[in-house]
Amino acid sequence: MTTLQICLLTSALLFATGFAGAVTRRHAILVLIGIELMLNAANLNLIAFWRFGPHPELLTGFIFVLFSMALAAAEAAVGLALVIAIYRHKKTSNLDEVRDLKG
Amino acid sequence: MPITLILTAVVLLFAAVAAMSLRNLVHCALMLAISFSGIAAIYLQLNAEFVGFTEILVYVGAVAILIVMAILLTRSGEAPDRSVLTSGWAAGVAVTAMVFVILGWAILNSTGLPPTVTPAPSATVKNIGDVLMTTYVLPLEIIALMLTAAMIGAVIIAFREEEPKEKTKMEDGRWKVEQPSTLSTPASSLQPPASTGEKA
Q1: Residue ranges of A 74-93 with Cβ closer than 8 A to chain B
Q2: At A71, which CATH number?
Q3: Which tens digit of pLDDT belongs to each residue from A33-91?
Q4: ipTM of this complex > 0.90?
Q5: At the topology level of CATH, where does B1-79 sit?
Q6: A66 interaction partners in chain B (CB closer than 8 Å)
Q7: How far apart are the first and last CA of chain B?
């Protein structure tokens, strides 16, 4: 097994872990944590392909990861703000109880 | 076989599984910080030093703290008495297993992966800055605009709704007189997650 395959397998396991958490846990913050883990798995793939790909000097995968991190930070901020707004409105952060769009 | 890479990956995956399965949310956030550090360590071993340190700054420094703030603000710091899983969790686990099997099969059987290890590329800060300011200057500007919009949106969403009485007070200017720094007042009285997110 090459180093690239080890990185890709790690990333696949990380993605599966994050996905399992996002679809099975009840708490809204845990779902956001799962989404962060999935985004990180994608970033790990991009860096691995940048490192072992044919043209690493172009820095494409590298720059893509930097942009993706900025997006993930924005997503975390907006997502957690939504969780706090829902908690203030409904006094719960259990996703099974948040099932209507109208408060 | 790069033994340090495998060890880092094992620690990272254990921390990730713990972050997704512990009952206490504060423990989950701490395990999340450990798994982010593991990812940063893997980046360092793949010669992506800048991304590794950015990962520590952005994720361990900002996102993990933001999540802890959100956990404490929603008063979910202690473990619940009821089940922490959703009602349809078995279907979720089945879909997850299917996703992993397909991904693993594709990785292990792919013939398109580059077989040889190339010499380490140079990703110095100078190279990154050059590329960001020439080839990727438009995406950089767009991401800056997007980040600003997202931060303003997060502030507006998390901002406490005021009574209509106070709003009319704001419109006829008395509020400005009472508090001299009009622009910085909303930002300083924000909820902590929004203000922490601005640094990210």
Answers
A1: 74-78, 80-85, 87-88, 93
A2: 1.10.287.3510
A3: 999 999 999 999 999 999 988 888 889 999 999 999 999 999 999 999 999 998 888 88
A4: yes
A5: Four Helix Bundle (Hemerythrin (Met), subunit A) (1.20.120)
A6: 51, 54, 128, 132
A7: 36
